[in-house]
Amino acid sequence: MNQDARGPDELTPLIRAAQRGDTLAMNDLLDALAPWVGRICGAIALDHGPDATQETLIAVFRRLRTLREPPAWRGWVRAIATREAVRVARRANGPGDTGLAGIPARGDAELATDIRDVLERLSPEHRAVLVLRDLEGLDEATAAALLRVPEGTVKSRLHRARASFRKAWTK
Q1: Domain ranges in the chain?
Q2: Residues 6 or more apart whose Cβ sits within 8 Å of residue 83
């Protein structure tokens, strides 16, 4: 799991100060969260990662007072980042685009040559599950709660995402 420049315990006092209205603490908090949030959003929203990161930080700024347990900030921010990244990626793809267009055949000029290219072929929902499970190390139940879907949906999306990824990568 990725760690921020500051440890999780170091951010808790900063969060509490920001919740009390300390604008300098809020600025420091958003600066500390930006790289981690950017990695999550970039992996899910791809080219639209910076937009998703900005939307996430705005949501954190607006909702920070609703965080009841400041030591639980990591899961709270991860949930916001994941939802915003999927939302931004869906909006960018347009309505009805599942992102599951056929994987190009061997010899196709658009054949996946790197991880990003392969990830672009997956839907935002499949990228989100891969990020939460394989990069963030969350279990299915936690990923399901963050994505607001049943655990079985997470399992099936993860299975399909991994299969599609492997298929594209090995061609």
Answers
A1: 1-97, 100-171
A2: 146, 147, 148
Phi–psi pair at 110, nearest 5 degrees: -95, 15
Domain 100-171 carries which CATH code?
Answer: 1.10.10.10
Other C-beta atoms closer than 10 Å to the C-beta of 87 total 15
Tens of pLDDT, residue by residue over 52-98, are 999 999 999 999 999 999 888 998 999 999 999 999 988 887 654 44
Q: By the 8 A CB rule, do 16 and 47 touch?
A: no
DSSP state of 39: H
- Cα 58 to Cα 77: distance, rounded to the nearest angstrom: 11
Residue type, 22: D
Phi and psi torsions of 31, nearest 5°: -65, -40
